[in-house]
Amino acid sequence: MDLLCPADKARLVINGTTCRRSRSEIGQFLTPAPIARFMASLFERNLVNVRILDAGAGAGALFAASVQSFCCRDHKPKSIEVVAFENDERVLPCLNEVMEFCRNTCEQVEIGFEGTIFKEDFISASLAQLGDGLFAQERKRFTHAILNPPYKKINGQTATRKMLSAAGMETSNLYAAFVWLASRLLEPSGELVAITPRSFCNGPYFRRFRKALLESMSLRRVHVFNSRKTAFSDDAVLQENVIFHAVRNEPQPRHVQISASEGLDFNMTTMRKAPFERVVLPGDSDAFIHLVLDGEGDTVMERMARFETTLGDLGLDVSTGRVVDFRASEYLRSKPENGTAPLVYPCHFENGFVNWPLVNGKKPDAIMLSKQTLDLMIASGYYVLTKRFTAKEERRRVVAAIYDPHRIKATSIGLENHLNYYHARGQGMPPSLAKGLALFLNSTLCDQYFRLFSGHTQVNATDLRKMRYPSRQELIRLGRHIKNRMPDQESIDTILEKECGDNE
User: Fold this and answer.
1) Domain range for residue 442?
2) What does the radius of gyration of the chain's CA atoms come to, in whole angstroms?
């Protein structure tokens, strides 16, 4: 019997009888059978005694796929032990059934089996085991961990967040906490396979998690889904997901296997070996993970490597817009009036410049100037703005526009929180520099590079800070090509190659 049949049936029943919102509230997205099989196939070692951890087991698809995989090997283990954590009462009956199927399957091939389901919080239990308390006397480690952890943010004031912080684990999402803890519960050379959002690959929120993971684990394989709708289509999840395989306390191989698939047919997977120094750049203190899927990605990395100038070298920085509109709602005005300043939203972007005010716009165009809003304002000048969020249907991740003070007569301006803005120590910058910077940010090269390490549609100021840019002289030359509007995409890319290409 296929051990995944009861788990997959339970997934379909639960998805059909519960609303997506309730599942999203607990961060539970059950694993489809094809993904479970693929994940289990990534385990490499043949061991006599196997001990599997499945934290956030759901309907049991992952440990069932793992047990089935080990039972079908030429070199079968003598014993398999499964430890599963799940506290959702709706799936527990199925979980018990799947565990019994695993027991029966192992008996048929003369493999000893032991299965335990803990109906408790995985974070609390594992922290107790890793700590110095009474429960910590049991220090039996796992040979394998396979996870589809919950995708949910952790509020900074919760007991969970405080427990993790006390253990030296600073993270803002449950999925990172589950993977972090599971990796620490592995024995030396223990293997971890997990499916998570790709968002951990970059950004400040997952910095400590990334560094801890790469310091204790060697990265062997990363699988990318080319479509954001693929992995959990039944749940209408549009988060980009990756599956990764890592081994504890083993030297990092020179190459990492990077694979990709369009859908759940893993027989149609593309595969390449990427040098580890292309995946995690040497000397990168933030340990961003770049997923270069093909030769085109290599070309992008090589072209971007020509640029060595930091924002600090340019005398620039990038910050997030200060006006959070719902917090300042009493000071917002739909149209400009006496005593107000321009308020700029992403909807004001037009042809590479800020077009303000908007006729019949849905967003307020102005913010009152007062003692209460003084700290929300910046002095008028030339700035480069980027959208922090792009809609899933937009073809670009990085979208930039120039704020031209000659087009908008004002002494102060407010920038809404969905924007990032480049500035010169809080002030505007020379117009030619602003125009050149905006052209570079709107280039296909910049957009392609950003996609290599960013798995979500958010463009963080930290990500923009870490990028390297053309020199000041090159940016000024680029800026000379902008008059009253941004050139079309083909012209932008041609200009960038002409002014900043490899002329050797």
Assistant:
1) 317-500
2) 26
**β-strands 142-147, 186-197: how paired?**
parallel
Per-residue model confidence as pLDDT tens digits over 379-418: 999 999 999 987 655 678 899 999 999 999 999 999 999 9
Instruction: Tell whether the torsion through CA atoms of 70, 71, 74 and 76 is positive or negative.
Output: positive
Domain endpoint, select from 209, 235, 252: 252
- Please provide the DSSP assignment of 150-215 as one string: ---B--TTSHHHHHHHHTT---SBHHHHHHHHHHHTEEEEEEEEEEEEGGGGSSSTTHHHHHHHHH
Q: Answer yes or no: are the C-beta atoms of 163 and 127 closer than 8 Å.
A: yes
CATH number of the domain bearing residue 476: 3.90.220.20
> Is it true that the peptide bond before 357 is cis, omega within 30 degrees of 0?
yes
> Residue 273 forms beta bridges with which residues?
257
Q: CATH code at 170?
A: 3.40.50.150
Of 210, 228, 252, which marks where a domain is finished? 252
Give the pLDDT confidence of 15-49 residue by residue, as tens digits. Answer: 555 544 544 444 467 888 899 999 999 999 999 99
Q: How many folded domains does the chain comprise?
A: 2
Distance (Å, rounded) from C-alpha 248 to C-alpha 262? 30
- How many other C-beta atoms can be found within 10 angstroms of the C-beta atom of residue 390? 18
Q: 226 and 87: one domain?
A: yes
